[in-house]
Amino acid sequence: MMRVLNRVGPLLAPRWPSLDPDRIVRASARAARSDEFGDPHFLEALPVFFDAIAREADLSWLGRVMCRQSLLGFLQNRFCVYRHRATHPELVGVPIERPIFIVGFPRTGTTILHNLFAQDPANRAPLAWEVQFPDPPPQSSTFDADPRIDKARTHFGHMDAMAPSLASIHEIGAELAQECVPILAQSMLGPQLNMIFNVPSYQAWVDRQSHAPAYRYHRHFLEHLQSEHMKDRWVLKSPVHLRTLDALLTEYPDARIIFTHRDPAKTVPSLASLFYVIRGMASDSVDPIALGQQQMHWWAASLDLATTVRNKHSDKSDQFMDIQFEEVVADPVAALGRAYERFRIPWSSEVEGRMRSFLASNPRGKHGSHQYELEDFGMTLGQIRERFEGYCKAYDIPLVV
User: Fold this and answer.
1) Which of 281, 279, 303 has the alpha carbon at shortest distance from 377?
2) Looking at the domain assignment, is residue 401 inside a domain?
């Protein structure tokens, strides 16, 4: 189906989709019925991104559609958040106290831990449907029956149809906990666009920027979601926070951080495989070797930065907890029980029962096994061992390969 669309799309719609940034901003504002967008910093990112798209991404016709729709969605959500915020000043400054962030390297058990945390009725994890469609803010009385849930099921169903192997690598469901990547993307300062499209020069530009505006927007987004549906604490997750942990702790100085770990020889090629599938939806010429090298070096640098920040904030050591992947595999509920104890969060047999019930319904490998090889992405075991040696020693990572 994707091959057919890429052949006939340019014939049926030769002048569409437009990737003109000004037109996309105007279309987003019209769809949101607003010209409120908060900090204008994100406008600086648009020409940099579209220059990278033109020079580096080699998009198919369907990839151009994905690019336009992604930007429209991100910016429309931003306009909606600030439109609502402008008319509801009571949202501003509502405390977000001691949020929990799971920030470990990808493929280290972060997703299952996040979803298990979400089973505790006292925890507020952002769900995929409300992150995808946040306007208007969800309400407690209709939260479990909101019509946007079905809309999100359709949206994510299209992704599964385009990339059937995606669920076996990283499942996204309308009512599952969603990570912070699509929230940060609405600031144009996160890595999601480089995950979907090959735009390394844009990502290099993002990495040089201050990430304070991204985390300020992140807080505004949470204030929006919690305005009519809040619980005792936020539980959030994304490996991309490793790169910007300093900005996170500046915005959320009392955050509790769970740092998960695993042998990089298992995580790095798995991650490259994930992004190869994702980028394959937008381009017919994804280079797995170049992709593998990009991801290995970017994530290694992210881990180095996270370690530097932890050393810098040694006075906050009681706000951090390390969990090895082997602990997650052995018993993720028990691992979370230890996190509850460390962070002095109430634990009960009811909470444990809810988590174990979710775990029984969602066993590892539910959607099939994820197959990949180091060689597929131009990596060698020696190369990975050398690049991640400092990280492995710092956190006493068991090497299993």
Assistant:
1) 279
2) no
